[in-house]
């Protein structure tokens, strides 16, 4: 049986159920070790250029240099193409579901804003992985929650989204466990007030994993579940803006500013602490309230440390912009949850400092960081900045926030799907509670929380 194409992580070729081996090999032993691996895997490797990828019948090797070692990622393809195959995502189309048209109406400025993930992720799934419903591993529901709720109100979004769910036949099969919703803003799924009733089991792609209300006093009900949901960066801008960040990345030891904080305080306690500290020590913290590109990107690239206090919610676009500019972030946010922790160790590329110790002690620490530690952290930041861009960066291959997101999505794949309204027999096929075959199911469907009184009435009292 002929093997399928090799499946590997970075650069990315998305496949599921493919075994992965990652080996750290000292540079001096690289050629010998790679030769052994290549011979075993039937791959031709140019050892003089380890970063060069060569494809064989059974495997592919990918090498990158990191801390004096080459990281060799070897992923074997499986013989069964039915097991190791590209991921399939069915993207619901507004042409088939007119309600979606109302939930996607946004001005052009939204696409380039920090909430531009609504467009970027939709375009990514639609152009890269779209398949028919029968072939799908996942279903993407392209509602622009931030845009729609900001322009038309949350009540409008709740009404339209609920009506849309009543039309989704495949949502019934899994109870929504294979359906994906994107929430691009800090208040997450609260942009859809009925989320906890109607889509509690769905996969949420979010920029925020923790939320306080606008007064930073009351913690809202937790809506990020690390076992089913994904965290991604905010949208860091167009390809041109990403290029400007990369170009601004200066050698770390020759940078002008020790620390930088750029932004409005918005009455937030943590930001006010940073502002007050900058007034006491203007020689150590450069803290203008507002500057724009290109001066903004150049300032980040000319700063050793970028202070990242929490804003209206925990996440902040500053974190990801800092990485792109090669500025080491100082996270002043006790509750921030980070994206792509399967790929990135944030304790080597950033500092997380307690919010209640934003004082001279922080500045003393930053001043005391030695040049070796600073250079090492800067090198690490440069090696992972592709994870925070939604556009390819030269020399990083296919590594982007979108490919990393899709790789993490693979771990959510479930071969078997069921819900309280799906039934089956040994002869195969899905039925509803009235023993009607799946092909005869027609909308509207009841989409109810199984813990709700109406749902008990619908499904029957099981006590």
TrEMBL record:
Transmembrane segments: none annotated. Belongs to the glycosyltransferase 47 family. The lineage of its organism: Eukaryota, Viridiplantae, Chlorophyta, core chlorophytes, Chlorophyceae. InterPro entries: Exostosin, Exostosin_GT47. Keywords: Golgi apparatus. This is Exostosin family-domain-containing protein. It comes from the Eukaryota. Residues 84-366 form the Exostosin GT47 domain. It comes from Dunaliella salina. It is a single-pass type II membrane protein. It is found in: Golgi apparatus membrane. Pfam families: Exostosin_GT47.
């Amino acid at each position: 049986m002929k093997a399928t194409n090799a499946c590997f992580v970075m650069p990315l070729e998305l496949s599921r159920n493919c075994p992965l081996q990652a080996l750290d090999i000292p540079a001096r032993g690289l050629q010998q070790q790679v030769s052994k691996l290549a011979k075993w895997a039937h791959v031709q490797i140019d050892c003089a250029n380890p970063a060069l990828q060569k494809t064989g019948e059974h495997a592919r090797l990918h090498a990158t240099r990191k801390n004096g070692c080459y990281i060799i990622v070897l992923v074997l393809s499986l013989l069964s193409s039915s097991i190791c195959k590209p991921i399939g995502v069915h993207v619901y189309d507004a042409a088939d579901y007119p309600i979606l048209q109302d939930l996607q109406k946004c001005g052009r400025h939204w696409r380039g804003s920090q909430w531009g993930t609504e467009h970027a992720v939709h375009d990514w799934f639609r152009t890269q992985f779209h398949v028919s419903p029968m072939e799908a591993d996942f279903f993407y529901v392209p509602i622009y929650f931030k845009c729609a709720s900001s322009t038309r109100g949350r009540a409008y979004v709740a009404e339209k989204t609920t009506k849309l769910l009543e039309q989704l036949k495949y949502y019934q099969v899994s109870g929504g466990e294979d359906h994906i919703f994107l929430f691009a803003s800090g208040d997450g799924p609260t942009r859809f007030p009925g989320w906890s009733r109607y889509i509690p089991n769905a996969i949420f792609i979010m920029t925020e994993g923790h939320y306080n209300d606008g007064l930073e006093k009351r913690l809202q009900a937790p809506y990020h579940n690390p076992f089913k949901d994904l965290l991604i960066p905010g949208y860091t801008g167009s390809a041109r803006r990403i290029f400007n960040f990369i170009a601004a990345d200066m050698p770390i030891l020759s940078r002008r500013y020790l620390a930088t904080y750029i932004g409005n305080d918005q009455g937030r306690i943590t930001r006010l602490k940073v502002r007050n500290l900058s007034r006491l020590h203007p020689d150590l913290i450069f803290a203008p309230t507002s500057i724009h590109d290109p001066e903004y990107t150049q300032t980040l690239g000319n700063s050793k440390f970028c202070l990242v206090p929490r804003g209206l919610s925990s996440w902040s676009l500053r974190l990801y912009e800092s990485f792109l500019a090669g500025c080491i972030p100082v996270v002043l946010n006790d509750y921030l949850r980070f994206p792509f922790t399967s790929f990135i160790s944030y304790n080597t590329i950033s500092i997380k400092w307690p919010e209640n110790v934003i004082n001279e002690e922080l500045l003393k620490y930053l001043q005391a960081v030695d040049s070796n530690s600073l250079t090492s952290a800067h090198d690490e930041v440069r090696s992972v900045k592709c994870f925070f861009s939604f556009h390819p960066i030269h020399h990083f291959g296919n590594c982007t926030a979108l490919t990393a997101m899709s790789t993490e999505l693979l771990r959510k794949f479930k071969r078997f799907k069921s819900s309280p309204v799906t039934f089956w027999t040994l002869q195969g096929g899905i039925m509803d509670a009235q023993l009607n075959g799946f092909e005869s199911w027609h909308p509207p469907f009841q989409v109810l929380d199984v813990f709700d009184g109406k749902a008990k009435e619908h499904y029957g009292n099981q006590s």
